[in-house]
Amino acid sequence: MRQYVTLFLLFFSFIIKTNSQEVLIVADEIPAMQVLAKSLKVQEGITTKIVFQTSLPRSLESFRAVIVYIHKDLDSGPEKAFIQYAKNGGKLIILHHSISSAKRKNNEWFTFLGVDLPKKEAGEGAYKFVGDIAMEVVNLAPNHFITTHKITYDTQILYTSEGQAQENTLPGFVLQNTEAFLNHNFQTPRTVLMGFKMKDTTGKVWMQDRSAWCMPVEKGWVFYSQPGHSYTDFENQIYTRIIANAVIYKL
């Protein structure tokens, strides 16, 4: 009898885990994530739970996806929990300043993500953030689910991909009064999904194929998207549709 009870409990636990539809959002700036959470619910019926990293659940296994939106320091405990969640088969979605200079002091984060933020002059390839700009975001993966499912882009953008000379007209969208991160240096392979185009305070135009990407990590998967400086970025329905697509994307 005890054996049957044990089997039933294991089966019940498995059903709860596999049927879980809730997405955990871990953030230190809540209003922007409340806007995102509302949009995910409206667009795809996705339910969310927003917490600070100091209130992280003991286990992340039951969540359909975990979204990280941390501007300031990323504590070592949550850092390890996010990495382990993804490696064990979870869907880790990282937004905006979750890859930024404040994370340089973390022991594992950038190695896990395969990125580097070089310290040198921006014109020579250094990491730099530029605020109060208009950012044009272009679709560089026209056949990928995340960049196409239920999306109609509202803008056509002249864009030259990195390493190419030819300018192309690509579909995209525009975010106003936002912030760009220059020179996220990729150290490992990944699928590039979106690029960005913007003009800095000197009038120089920057175009980089680093606005959004995804990659497998052991049993799981990571998606990163660079926009998200303020809640107004998440009022753009095309942008939040891309994030919703990342949540529902079948690995």
UniProtKB/TrEMBL annotation:
InterPro entries registered for this protein in UniProt: Class_I_gatase-like, ThuA-like
SUPFAM superfamilies to which the protein is assigned, alphabetical: Class I glutamine amidotransferase-like (SSF52317)
Residues annotated as domain ThuA-like: 29-249
The organism's place on the tree of life at top rank: Bacteria
Protein name: ThuA-like domain-containing protein
